[in-house]
Amino acid sequence: MNKFLLALSILAPLFAQEHIPVPLADANRPVSLTIHLMTGSITVRGYSGHEVIVDTKGRPAGEHETHDGLHRIGGGGSGLTIESDNNKITITSHIGPGGDLTVQTPVNTSVNVKTLAGGQITIEGVDGEIEAQNLNGAVTVRNASGPVVASSLNGSVTVTMASVKSGSPMSFTTLNGNIDVTLPSNVAADFKMKTNHGDIYSDFDVKMKAPPAPVVSGKDSKGKYIIKTDGSQSGSVNGGGPEYRFSTLNGNIYIRKTR
């Protein structure tokens, strides 16, 4: 086997606690980490080590859960698959109740995480690109440096940027929940902001722009025209730059300066 290529597959139960070190082909190169869970929470933390460490925690067997006088000691659950291939780590779960994951990874890591139900996503202390998607739960990103795309269907999105890379667009969206993003005071960007049922707050000096022109569709079968407005608000800070999108249907938007 080529020493720079390592393929690893682990099937781990998600009911007991598991501590799984995952080797890298080259700890001095950037890491790509992908985690897709059916259910459960995901926590990713950057650290100074030279491997990826996966800790699992399943649903505890409640000592008071009984059936016909018998105590519950376990049950059906999903398995976990971990693959390591040339510094690309992929973690997936199968269909089932699932469990929670905590992953420690070198700081120089790009992260793509997704969970579909019943969990939170927390990412902190990595400086690569971050993409986080949660169907039902909050997304929290702390001390990030690379571009961030964070979205939830039902949950808040909270992001704190330690620094930003110039020229990289970012997106923070949810359907139901607040958007709360903290950026360095010297960030240069164009903000596109939209909330249908809420307010927008910022302590940046945002130079507001004229709203987008209405979109006029052609005539329908009865000769009627339809005119639609976007409903978003746009502005620039520190001279403008890449587009940062902030969008929620039901909630407020907070755009803060780092203090």
**Percent helix:** under 10%
**Strand residue content:** over 45%
Number of domains: 1
Spatial strand sequence of the major β-sheet: 1-8-9-3-11-13-15-17-25-19-24-21
Number of strands: 26
Nearest-angstrom radius of gyration? 22 Å
- Report the end-to-end length measured between terminal Cα atoms: 51 Å
Task: Give the biggest beta sheet.
Answer: 12 strands, mixed
| Uncertain regions spanning at least 5 consecutive residues | 1-7
Topology:
Elements: E1 9-13, E2 18-22, E3 31-39, E4 42-47, E5 52-58, E6 66-67, E7 70-71, E8 79-85, E9 88-93, E10 99-106, E11 109-117, E12 121-124, E13 130-136, E14 139-144, E15 148-154, E16 157-161, E17 170-176, E18 179-183, E19 189-197, E20 200-202, E21 207-208, E22 215-216, E23 227-228, E24 233-237, E25 243-250, E26 253-257
Parallel strand pairs: 3-9, 3-11, 4-10, 4-12, 11-13, 12-14, 13-15, 14-16, 15-17, 16-18, 17-25, 18-26, 19-25, 20-26
Antiparallel strand pairs: 1-8, 2-5, 5-10, 6-7, 8-9, 19-24, 21-24, 22-23
Annotation keywords:
disordered N terminus, 259 residues, twelve-stranded mixed beta sheet, ten-stranded mixed beta sheet, 55% strand, mainly beta
Description:
The protein is mainly β and 259 residues long. The chain has one domain (9-62, 77-257). It is built from no helices and 26 strands. It has strands at residues 9-13, 18-22, 31-39, 42-47, 52-58, 66-67, 70-71, 79-85, 88-93, 99-106, 109-117, 121-124, 130-136, 139-144, 148-154, 157-161, 170-176, 179-183, 189-197, 200-202, 207-208, 215-216, 227-228, 233-237, 243-250, 253-257. The protein has a twelve-stranded mixed sheet, with no helix packed on it. A ten-stranded mixed sheet has the order 2-5-10-4-12-14-16-18-26-20, with no helix packed on it. A two-stranded antiparallel sheet has the order 6-7. The N and C termini lie far apart (51 Å). Residues 1-7 have low confidence and may be disordered.
